[in-house]
Amino acid sequence: IQDMGVPYVISIWALPKWLYENPPDRVRQSKRRIHPDRWDELLECLGSYLVYAKREYGVEPDLFSFNEANIGVDVLLTAEEHREAIKRIGAHFATLGLKTKMLLADATGPRGTHTYALPAANDPEAVGYCGAIGFHSWGGAKPEQYAAWGDLAEKLKLPLLVAELGVDAGAWRTRAFDSYLYAMREVRMYQELLLHARPQGTMQWEFTSDYGIAKVTRASDGRAEVIPTARFHLVKHFCNLTPQGADALTTASDNDRVLFTAFRGEDDGDPAYTLHVANLGPARSATVTGIPAGVTQLRAVQTSEEEHFKELTIVQPDSGIVVLELAPQSLLTLTTLD
């Protein structure tokens, strides 16, 4: 991941039992508090681990966090304790010569949880140790609640990361998780996050087998066979068709069942555009205006319940306008041709 130039976060879930107040019976247990007299030992654990990783493997995470400490999925920190932890850990990493910065918040759920970041955000010393601000999207939010995160990130001049992108943290236990309906709920979340929270990075939860977007089965000869789900193909639209490092463009839709996002990047020095059109209702026609004059042809890729990542006929704008036929419950992506 590091060699690919992809920023990454190293996060604490469970700590060794002896670092907690009232050590738990199990390693994984919620709402555990760090023992106030063992912070020096904790800092030594964290720092020596990262120094070893740097020395032996040449890796340095860009960011560090405690996973969902606002609700204490494992380690529980109040907003004020989170601020102090950022200063303590950030200073220790700096003393060791590590480039690793702190991920501010890394909070679960986007609804009103930006307040968890405020004590640290209002402390210049703490902000100085932060390299980004982040939240997890479980449960979704209203546009203004997403926007509160984007506004705070812009105020702090920090990248905003959706460090876990998912709709329902418990859905993987149910049959609905692999349904097309659930996949389209993820598409809606992607579009709403991009429109209102304006993150600079997202991480699909997840690309490995737990919460997976593909299934592994056994073929008749016993070999493992990977079977993509509908979620795989829809996520592929966002990951494979959006130019890396692209700028998000201002978009609007006059139908709340059609969500539209657009990006401008570069391809060998030339502008590269991507338009994602999500139709959350029945089949319909849609007109897109404002396409730059230099764009004369657009590749069209569509995923619906019946067709996955299907190449459609090339679209040719007329005076910056295209008329599209959207399949029901679908995602259509237009990209400039190579």
What does the overall shape look like?
globular
Radius of gyration: 22 Å
Number of helical elements: 7
Taking strands numbered 1, 2, ... along the chain, how are they ordered across the largest sheet?
Answer: 1-2-3-4-5-6
In terms of structural class, how would the helical and strand content be classed? alpha/beta
Strand content: 25-35%
Can you count the beta strands? 16
Can you give the mean pLDDT? Answer: 96
Low-confidence stretches: none
Question: In oligomeric terms, what are we looking at?
Answer: single chain
Largest sheet: 6 strands, parallel
Verbal overview:
- This protein is an alpha/beta fold.
- The chain contains 7 helices and 16 strands.
- It has a 6-stranded parallel beta sheet with strand order 1-2-3-4-5-6. A 6-stranded antiparallel beta sheet has the order 9-10-11-16-13-14, covered by helices on one side. The chain has a two-stranded antiparallel ribbon with strand order 7-8.
- A hairpin with a 5-residue loop joins strand 7 (214-218) and strand 8.
- Helix 5 (143-156) packs across helix 6.
- The longest helix is centred in the first third of the chain and has 19 residues, at 39-57.
- The chain is globular and about 70 Å long.
- 35% of the residues are buried.
- The mean pLDDT is 96.
